[in-house]
Amino acid sequence: MKCRVCRGPAIIDLPRHNANFCSEHFTKFCRDQVEKAIADFDMLLPSDRVLVAVSGGKDSLAVWDLLLELGYRADGFYIGLGIGDYSDTSGGYARRFAAERAEPRGARLIEVDLVDTYGYDVPTGARAARRNPCSACGMSKRHLFDRAAIEGGYDVVVTGHNLDDEAAVLFGNVLHWQTEYLGRQRPVLSAKDGFPRKVKPLVRLTEREMAAYCIVSGIDYLVDECPMSAGNKHLGYKEALNEIEVRSPGTKSDFYFSFLRHAADRFASGDEADEADGAAADAARGALGPCVRCGSPTSTELCAFCRLVERAGGHPATGPVVQPVDITPRPSTTPPRPDTTGTRVP
Amino acid sequence: MKCRVCRGPAIIDLPRHNANFCSEHFTKFCRDQVEKAIADFDMLLPSDRVLVAVSGGKDSLAVWDLLLELGYRADGFYIGLGIGDYSDTSGGYARRFAAERAEPRGARLIEVDLVDTYGYDVPTGARAARRNPCSACGMSKRHLFDRAAIEGGYDVVVTGHNLDDEAAVLFGNVLHWQTEYLGRQRPVLSAKDGFPRKVKPLVRLTEREMAAYCIVSGIDYLVDECPMSAGNKHLGYKEALNEIEVRSPGTKSDFYFSFLRHAADRFASGDEADEADGAAADAARGALGPCVRCGSPTSTELCAFCRLVERAGGHPATGPVVQPVDITPRPSTTPPRPDTTGTRVP
Questions:
Q1: Which candidate among A147, B161, B185, B192 keeps its CA 20 to 30 Å from the CA of A230?
Q2: Alpha helix stretches (DSSP H) within chain B
């Protein structure tokens, strides 16, 4: 098995590209795929101040690493979710990456802890709101990504969703023809109605490739799945797609990118908006005002996040959860920036 | 496990309906589902002369049986495909069903043999045309269904496609977002441009249910899959959907029927017709004339079927492949009709 580029010994085969790569050219392949995704979907400008949602897993650490490698001004944002040992361990991976690989490149890690800041954790929140834990967790994270980006002065939130994630979500939406979600499933959500732009630069790369990228790059990451995700339907959808991918390499990528090219627009009419829930659907209806408690855009008096915090017996944040980012333009070469210390807020 | 209706011992559980049934009420359930599909999609009128495509497998024999049971004037149509022992055996099952269960109810079996009538068989045709056997076979069968219905004076062709078949085809079309096919995937295709109406009354019933229906009803059918279908991608799609169905009963049915309700129309615009091939796509473009050899509607001088026959070293049919059906109205009660003998053509 030889590297497609240099004919040296390959360390990974990529059947859907009919290619094998050595470490060096695999790393370059990953960078190229991220650059291509960014260019194809107009995800980022070189001047953007980027906030990367970091969990301590392979995808979020890899995307942070790749964006720094490509010269973007990208800070990390870690949320302590209060999921027992899992959260302690994942935070450790995020902090270690920040100290060893991000701070030397002028970036910092911002942290918000749900228990410290809001007096609740995801398990309690999910139970109190009678929501599926993944749903309560996802809603909490999205709220905090939005709030952190706006308060911190970031132009864009980056998440580490990879091709497997996006294909599995698409599969789930297609299985039940959730047309409103299908109309919004894109690798870029534009800034709108007080929400920051959100982008997914890993959509051209798979889970397996991100694990390999971390290993090859010496990035230590949390391998375990979240203990609360057991039984999550998307894991089943991933398995189903993987079985098909093994028989017909390239199917997963074709499923997702053909959807974007040939089908997504057909669901974007918004005539199903009345079926959906959530702030983005509210935004589609153009009926948003500020939450009376936190100021986030919402169609109700109290936003869904503040309702969850209240039901879980928590309290509002006592001030901004994120300090504004240093807006000094970054030099064109990439020496470490002056503010290299990880900032823990609060 | 008790029957939902009579509380007697159940012989089958149907997780997606959260129900169990005894033999009698399972048979009634199948009839009800067929009636509901026919009514929901305006498939058949009581006066229709129906031609049922019969392979000797469970689905086609079950649908023929169910339509006769419901009082439709439904003849069977069997095509000898020349696939060695498989064809000999499958023909035997079709003829046995006709003699034992159809003819006593006033229906007849019409047969056309590819070798006798056209001088080629499916394996030779597929090789000669360098087509996947399932593709060459499907095209040949669709051509003969159309021709037989038109020549025989039938109003509608019935096929035994069940929910698993339709969901698997939908899955395949969605995996590659074949928008033109998605726009045409419906349980009813209206008569148009010289093609007869085609309907699928089993779309509300699964493979497993059709096997159970045959067993319970004493219908002997060919269990083996066609030997040429090995590696057919739809078998993989069925497996993938079945794994999801086991975890979430009802998903398969929701996938298919939600598509029809919420998504199919979005693909029906016809603006992708230029991507597709085949007579139906030609029809969508409105560019059809008669094939110079067989008279079937086609956009080329020689239709795709006649080209296949020619490449496979076969010859045109020497006359009509099906004699016109007896158009005497059937009495409202259902005694055997006078013409109870199976007619073999030629």
A1: A147
A2: 23-40, 58-69, 84-97, 114-118, 122-128, 133-152, 163-175, 179-184, 207-217, 233-247, 251-258, 279-285, 304-311
Low-confidence ranges of chain B (pLDDT < 70): 269-286, 325-346
Find the Cα–Cα–Cα–Cα dihedral B207, A235, B19, B66, rounded to 10°: -20
How is residue A303 written in tokens? 């936003």
Which residue has tokens 């995808």?
A59
**Residue A154 backbone zone (phi > 0: left; psi -120 to 50: alpha; other: beta):** beta
pTM: 0.86
ipTM confidence: 0.83
Distance, CA of A47 to CA of B118 (rounded, Å): 70
Which residues of chain B are within 8 Å of residue A247 when distances are taken between CB atoms?
233, 236
* C-alpha to C-alpha distance for A89 and A82, rounded to whole angstroms: 11
3-state SS class at A189:
strand
**What is the tens place of the pLDDT at every residue in B258-286?**
999 999 999 986 543 433 445 555 555 56
Q: pLDDT (tens digit, 0 to 9) for every residue of chain A, 346 residues total?
A: 999 999 999 999 999 999 999 999 999 999 999 999 999 999 999 999 999 999 999 999 999 999 999 999 999 999 999 998 988 999 999 999 999 999 999 999 999 999 999 999 999 888 888 888 888 899 999 999 999 999 999 999 999 999 999 999 999 999 999 999 999 999 999 998 889 999 999 999 999 999 999 999 999 999 988 888 877 788 889 999 999 999 999 999 999 999 999 999 999 865 434 334 455 555 555 678 999 999 899 999 999 999 999 999 999 998 888 877 665 545 444 443 334 343 433 3
Q: Element (H or E) spanning A60, and its range?
A: helix A58-69
| Chain B interface includes A248 (CB < 8 A) | yes
Q: Mutate which of A170, A262, A265 to test chain B, going by most B C-beta atoms within 10 A?
A: A262
- Residues 6 or more apart whose CB falls under 8 angstroms from that of A31 comprise A66, A69, A70
Any B CB within 8 A of A176 CB: yes
**pLDDT value at position A328?**
53
Q: How far is residue B326's CA from residue B12's CA, in Å, rounded to a whole number?
A: 40
A312: left (phi over 0), alpha (psi -120 to 50) or beta: alpha
Give yes or no for B254 touching A (CB within 8 A).
yes
Residue A182: partners with Cβ closer than 8 Å, 6 or more residues away: A170, A173, A174, A263, A264, A267
A147 to chain B, closest Cα gap in Å: 35
Location of structure tokens 């339907």: A233
Q: Say if residue A46 is preceded by a cis peptide, omega within 30 of 0.
A: no
Residue B22 pLDDT: 98
DSSP state of B193: T
Does the CB of B246 have a partner CB in chain A at under 8 Å?
Answer: no
Q: Is B261 on the interface with A (CB under 8 A)?
A: yes
The answer to whether the beta carbons of residues A266 and B267 sit under 8 Å apart is yes
Contact assignment for B179 to A272 by CB distance below 8 Å: no
Question: Is A240 within 8 Å of B244 when comparing Cβ atoms?
Answer: yes
Q: Tell me what pLDDT residue B130 has.
A: 85
Q: Are A42 and A32 in contact (CB under 8 A)?
A: no
* A236: contact with B, CB 8 A cutoff: yes
Q: Which helix (H) or strand (E) is A77 found in, with range?
A: strand A73-80
Q: How far apart are CA A122 and CA A308, in angstroms?
A: 10
User: A255–B179: do the CB atoms touch at under 8 Å?
Assistant: no
Nearest C-alpha neighbor of A261 from the set A40, A29, A26, A6: A40
Predicted local confidence at residue B128, as pLDDT: 87
